[in-house]
Amino acid sequence: MDRKIRVGAVSYLNTKPLIYGFEQGLMKDQIALIFDYPANIAAALLNDTIDIGLVPVAVIPEMTEYHIIGNHCISSEGEVASVCLFSEVPLQEIETVLLDYQSRTSVKLAEILLKEYWKIDPVIKAADHDFRSEIKGKTAAVVIGDRALEQRKISTYRYDLGLAWKKYTGLPFVFAAWVSNKELPAEFIEAFDSANVLGLDNIEKVIAQNPYDTYDLATYYADNIKFKLGDDKRKSISLFLDKLNVNNF
Q1: Long-range contacts of 27-34 (CB under 8 A, 24+ apart)
Q2: According to the model, what pLDDT value does residue 102 have?
Q3: Where are the domains of the chain?
Q4: Contact 178, 73 (CB under 8 A)
Q5: DSSP label at 4?
Q6: Cα separation, 247 vs 235, whole angstroms
Q7: DSSP state at residue 84
Q8: How do residues 230-243 score in pLDDT, each as one tens digit?
């Protein structure tokens, strides 16, 4: 390409290890890094205002062309901690669920789990910017990212979506992957994937650059967030996308 490749990423804590290398200057002559929240990065990829995005996998069916690139992702193999359904009442008493406007995959995952795994049928509503204040009584909400780590200290009940998916399917769950909307050179993809590794090999430096008192980041990066995109995770992506299609979500 005769210009820098536009890369969209999320500034949540869960992405910090993957973007660390880029922030240290790797590939600075080849890429332009853009930050936003997941749903906006997905929209930018669909609109071709970026070339690669660390995007919610739920956007894939909307793309006319897509390529999952590299071997890294944002996933969990159990409790993810930062994607949860929060409530003041037990699951069976929930009447309304607000869905986080910042995500696509997490809200679709919540809809699948509500219907197929938890087998409850609350009213589903799209949330606005101040929705966390509405988590009260029998109104629950799906909250993602750093705000979910904060909400863990507030809500009486929390239902971890990564853990629920694992219990339901026996598989890990991929929340986001590096996806391009066009074919890119193999040598670029190899270098891009290698740049992801720098942060994973320097987790202590990543943590030092992102001080956070709300949740232990060493635990978060070691136990909650899994960054390698293996065969079991690709299988999980396929199953998730199949369920989206079957349920017409």
Answers
A1: 27/191, 27/192, 27/195, 29/4, 30/4, 30/5, 30/188, 30/191, 31/4, 31/5, 31/6, 31/7, 31/192, 32/4, 32/5, 32/6, 32/7, 33/7, 33/9, 34/6, 34/7, 34/8, 34/9
A2: 75
A3: 5-76+173-247, 83-169
A4: yes
A5: P
A6: 18
A7: E
A8: 999 999 999 999 99
Neighbours of 225 (CB within 10 A): 26
pLDDT at site 1: 63
CATH number of 83-169: 3.40.190.10
C-beta atoms surrounding 160 within 10 Å? 21
The Cα angle at residue 81 between residues 131 and 220, in degrees rounded to 5 = 130
pLDDT digits (tens, 9 = 90+) for 4-51: 999 999 888 999 999 999 999 999 999 999 999 888 898 999 999 999
| Separation CA 68–CA 231 (nearest Å) | 13
The domain made up of 5-76+173-247 is a member of CATH 3.40.50.300: no
Distance CA 174, CA 57 (A): 7
Is there a shared CATH topology between the 5-76+173-247 domain and the 83-169 domain? yes
